[in-house]
Design goal:
Helix content is 38%, strand content 21%. With 420 residues, the protein is an alpha+beta fold. The protein has two domains: 262 residues, Bira Bifunctional Protein, Domain 2 (BirA Bifunctional Protein, domain 2, 2-Layer Sandwich), CATH 3.30.930; 87 residues, 3-Layer(aba) Sandwich (Rossmann fold). Bound molecules: adenosine monophosphate. Adenosine monophosphate (AMP) binds next to β6, β10 and α13.
Length: 420
């Protein structure tokens, strides 16, 4: 590597996921996609970048993500493009573009991939982070909300992450519901403007709900007395929310009502939620989601209610790292004793792999002792030892690396022995 290249590191806020952590990362990713698939969510892949408008119109220009955090650039054709900061608006764009909503509803999709936001990096907060997610588009039935939330909670449990589910309804955009409430909130914030932190004063007109998310002590004190959306929902939204919480209780998904929970993206309506884990410090949300009944229309589509979740893999890995040891996919390590055994050991490793048995072998010309050490490093349960005697008699010596027991057997028996 050149001197220059050695001086380069990954860009600020990005990181490499290295072995052995990367094994656990893959396990959790697979678990997520399997859990989603088992509930009927089909995978979709969308581009890592979109026309900037998709996010401006979808996520909302007043949101912090669009206003301050997007990686937006002009390509050589002078188009404004943006690295996706989230997955929902792109999925809705794809649904509308390909008319998936004209088929059976709801359209149920899952995705996984990197997202990009230019945030101030800290533990659990990166500029490139990885989300998995599901979206159910085309139904406003409360059972869809309950299904999405139940599937998410089950995924965290299976991944070994203890979470608390915070749940709220933020109503829908209607004078009888959130619009009326927001007027009330703005009035309250204006009355208390002098007690708000300066940066929160700006939000009164642009994004008043977000004052509930302020980390500033003075604002927090003001917000303790603020009117709550939960007390001002229209009867349809209240009924919807009661149905969702009733269904969750029925299937035993624990939740905490959190009337001050608002979410960062402008498209949310009605059910909004977040899963938080302990031990992560200030960045404790391991996933969130909510309903977005107006998103399709913001992107030029027909009325098409939807709801989704987006668990964040980086924080999930932080929350589970101590608890779960990554599994090793290697079962057998083939040890070659002497020069002549090298090609034979390569042949044996190849045939074991072809039979679906995870296998490694020495590729560095190590001594027998060195190979046994490397076998331990590989995580293999067995060492299959081949020397001149074994080759001439068509046998192999199998050593159980846990118990230390060893036995010699015909090569043909090896596969069934280690496969068990
Ligand atoms: P959001 O799309 O903002 O609702 O975020 C959903 C989840 O993605 C959060 O609960 C986090 O787990 C994760 N997440 C969001 N932003 C970041 C980030 N900058 N770094 C790491 N994880 C993130």
């Amino acid at each position: 590597m050149s001197e220059d290249a050695r001086g380069l590191g990954a860009p600020k806020g990005t990181r490499d996921i290295l072995p052995p952590e990367s094994w656990g990362w893959q396990d959790v990713l697979r678990l997520a996609m399997d859990t989603f698939a088992a509930a009927g969510y089909a995978p979709i892949e969308t581009p890592a970048f979109e026309h900037t408008e998709v996010f401006e119109r979808g996520v909302g220009a007043t949101s912090e993500v669009v206003g301050k955090q997007m990686y937006t650039f002009r390509d050589r054709g002078n188009r404004s493009l943006t690295l996706r900061p989230e997955g929902t608006a792109p999925v809705m764009r794809a649904v509308l573009e390909h008319n998936l909503h004209r088929g059976p509803l709801p359209v149920k999709l899952s995705y996984a991939g990197p997202m990009f936001r230019q945030e101030r990096p800290q533990k659990g907060r990166y500029r490139q982070f990885f989300q998995v997610g599901i979206e159910a588009i085309g139904s406003d039935d409360p059972r869809v909300d309950a299904e999405i939330i139940e599937v998410g909670s089950r995924f965290y449990r299976a991944a070994g992450v203890e979470t608390r589910l915070l749940l709220n309804s933020i109503g829908h955009l209607d004078p009888s519901c959130r619009q009326g409430y927001v007027k009330l909130l703005v009035g309250y914030l204006e009355d208390n403007e002098s007690s708000l932190a300066p940066e929160d004063r700006e939000r009164i007109q642009t994004n008043p709900l977000r004052t509930f998310d302020s980390k500033e002590a003075t604002t927090k004190t003001v917000m303790e007395e603020a009117p709550l959306i939960s007390d001002h929902l229209c009867s349809a939204c209240r009924g919807h929310f009661e149905a969702v919480t009733g269904l969750l209780a029925e299937v035993g998904v624990p939740f905490t009502l959190e009337p001050r929970l608002v979410r960062g993206l402008d498209y949310y309506t009605r059910t909004a939620f977040e899963w938080v884990a302990s031990g992560l410090g200030s960045q404790d949300a391991v996933g969130g989601g909510g309903r977005y009944d107006g998103l399709s229309e913001s992107l030029g589509g027909p009325p098409l209610p939807g709801i989704g979740i987006a668990p964040g893999l980086d924080r999930i890995m932080l929350a589970r790292s101590a608890a779960v040891a990554p599994r090793s996919p290697v079962q057998v390590y083939v040890v070659a004793v002497g020069e002549a055994a090298k090609p034979a050991s390569f042949g044996l490793a190849t045939s074991l792999r072809a039979a679906g048995v995870g296998t490694e072998l020495d590729l560095m010309g190590r001594s027998i002792k060195g190979q046994m050490k490397d076998a331990a490093r590989s995580g293999a349960r067995w060492a299959a030892i081949l020397g001149d005697d074994e080759i001439s008699s068509g046998t192999v010596m199998l050593k159980d690396l846990d118990s230390g027991e060893q036995e010699t057997m015909p090569v043909e028996q090896l596969r069934s022995r280690v496969g068990s």
